[in-house]
């Protein structure tokens, strides 16, 4: 496979555009599929899509075919996912990581196959709606917006959660999960020209009655706590309109636990439909 192109600064969209911004969150992003369906059924279509991590997967797949049929295919992909499809356990890889001889707990080969079969385009710029995946420069911690080049490499980089997956080299940069620098990339969407931003959040984990979390879950929750304050600052800094959709709730706390996916898809659809109805009623 030829080496992917270096990250390129995207050309800003025309002013007055609508963006869908999709938060990262692994398996908790299943609810975004239902939200995309409700928005599409309501006739709301973005001029650009920006996502981090699993939100970037949803964003690029949707942008490749922004129709009900395209969402059907994205939902079918989510319903087929199991832990082994994205994070297969390999004793050899784990041991190498523990001994300091590897950069990650699992190989990204399985996730690469999921992306190759599920996103519908070979290059990001081939999507029907302009799409952008946000990753993080491993050396500087800066957000990197990937708008051109190999789509699978860009999405692997955007989803390379530190410690779980290895960094991905795109051009001359080593990139990791976009959620580290821009979990909800509203500022990146605004920089690309968006004046109205619909934020599609990942599901929120319910705390009551949860079993003691595994190490990956603890790391994810710690990162989320760190990012909360940044999210508030970013939202306050946006000059345009930010419309945050409601988040589904789930007892699942793991990034790679897909047992609640069917219910999350339904919940995302129902919550967004209800939210849209309230928005309409408020303007009458």
Q: Tally the helices.
A: 11
Please outline the major beta sheet. 8 strands, mixed
Q: Helical content, roughly?
A: 40-55%
Q: What is the averaged pLDDT score?
A: 86
Proportion of residues in β-strands: 15-25%
Distance between the termini: 55 Å
**SS content category:** alpha/beta
- Compute the CA-based radius of gyration: 18 Å
Low-confidence segments: 1-12, 93-99
Q: What shape does the CA trace take?
A: globular
> What is the H/E string?
EHEHHHHHEEHEEHHEEHEEH
- What is the number of E strands? 10
Give your account of this protein's structure.
The strands form two sheets. Strands 1, 2, 3, 4, 5, 6, 7 and 9 form an eight-stranded mixed sheet that branches. Residues 1-12 and 93-99 have low confidence and may be disordered. The longest helix has 23 residues, at 215-237. This protein has eleven helices and ten strands. It has 284 residues and is of the alpha/beta class. Helix 1 runs parallel beside helix 11 (261-283) and helix 6 packs across helix 7. It starts with 16 loop residues before the first strand and ends with a helix. It is globular, with a radius of gyration of 18 Å.
Task: Identify the notable features of this structure and list them briefly.
284 residues; alpha/beta; 8-stranded mixed sheet; two-stranded parallel ribbon; 11 helices; disordered N terminus
């Amino acid at each position: 496979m030829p080496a992917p192109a270096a990250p390129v600064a995207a050309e800003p969209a025309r002013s007055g555009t609508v963006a869908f911004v999709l938060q990262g969150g692994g398996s908790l992003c299943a609810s975004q599929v239902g939200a995309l369906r409700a928005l599409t059924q309501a006739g709301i279509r973005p001029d650009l899509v920006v996502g981090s991590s699993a939100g970037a997967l949803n964003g690029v797949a949707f942008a490749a075919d922004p129709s009900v049929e395209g969402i059907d295919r994205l939902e079918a992909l989510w319903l087929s996912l199991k832990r082994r499809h994205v994070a297969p356990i390999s004793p050899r890889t784990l041991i190498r990581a523990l001994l300091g001889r590897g950069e990650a707990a699992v190989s990204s080969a399985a996730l690469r196959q999921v992306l190759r079969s599920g996103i519908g385009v070979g290059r990001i710029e081939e999507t029907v709606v302009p799409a952008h995946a946000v990753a993080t420069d491993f050396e500087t911690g800066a957000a990197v917006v990937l708008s051109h080049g190999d789509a699978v490499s860009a999405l692997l980089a955007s989803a390379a959660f530190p410690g779980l997956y290895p960094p991905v080299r795109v051009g001359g940069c080593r990139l990791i999960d976009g959620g580290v620098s821009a979990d909800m990339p509203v500022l990146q969407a605004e920089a690309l020209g968006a004046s109205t931003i619909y934020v599609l959040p990942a599901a929120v984990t319910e705390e009551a009655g949860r079993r003691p979390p595994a190490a990956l879950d603890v790391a994810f929750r710690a990162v989320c706590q760190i990012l909360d304050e940044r999210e508030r600052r970013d939202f306050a800094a946006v000059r345009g309109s930010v419309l945050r959709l409601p988040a589904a709730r789930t007892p699942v706390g793991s990034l790679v636990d897909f047992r609640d996916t069917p219910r999350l898809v339904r919940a995302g659809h129902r919550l967004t439909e209800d939210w849209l109805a309230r928005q309409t009623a408020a303007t009458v």
